[in-house]
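Lab notes, practical 5.
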Amino acid sequence: MAREPTRRPAFTLIEMLVVITIILAISALAYAVFPKQSDRKMTYGADRLQAWLLSAKQQAKRDQRATGLRLIPNAAGINTLIYVQQLDDFAPPDPATGLPSTCTCAGTTLVTFNQAGILLGNFAAGGQIQGNAQTGGDLAPVSSGDYIEFYRGGSVYQIASVAASGTTLTLTSIGPITGAAASYRIIRQPRPLMGQEDLVLPDDIIIDFTNVPSGSTPKSVVPTRAVLDSTTSVPTLFSEIVFGPAGNVIGQNSGQDKVYLWLTDSTGVAQPLILALQVRTGLVGVHPVGSAGNEYQFAKDGRSSGM
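Output from the prediction step:
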């Protein structure tokens, strides 16, 4: 008796179409839920920047000394930062007598110190032209951007430059007539922490001060300070975000409510993010960009703590 041939199991056309439809639906859902590689990189960069700022804030509170981040510009934008911390005031004694050193100012921008080379500290020569393109004159005891206070409690003036001799400095504005021998102190601004490596954002992720919506102000509200660039021997403006011992943001141009930093993708693929830093409390939040004409709607919302 002949046996019937065994039939091979197979999908019908309808079953195949159902399976394909399910696969396409799952793929579409995964594409919508899981971010693209560029967006993940942007989020990772925002997380790193937020962590660096919070670390600087905690260091300022721990050390009871102003600490923050300096933003290093390059051709593409800003993707490198370094930790900075304020030094003690500089008021060295006269090495010959041990008495407080003094200076004179004749009502001009030039200040002359009565002890030759006193501004060099332990440096034998070179003035503030020490360091590299990122730190500028930070390795020198006194640098452009620092302040001098006459009579230890009198008027305060910002320093524009320090002569290589270490005997004179130039102010950014006309100083007072101090007489023959005025006591002083140099109020030094933050310097890079020695031994710290550069903080680098992921590839193509930058802090952008230029390609931001018209009418926004992040470029002007980030505190800036002039530091001598040893490659050119002229002061260069660096943007710095510095926290005080109480955890608040301090420095010039820090009187606003928040500091906004735009994180963008230099290739234009990933969606930008806004990092909002509250000046009074030092709280940091990362926010998406709002609709056109209202880009800061999420970053400015006081009820929102960020992503």
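Observations recorded by the TA: The chain is about 15% helix and 30% strand. The CA atoms of residues 213 and 293 lie 8 Å apart.
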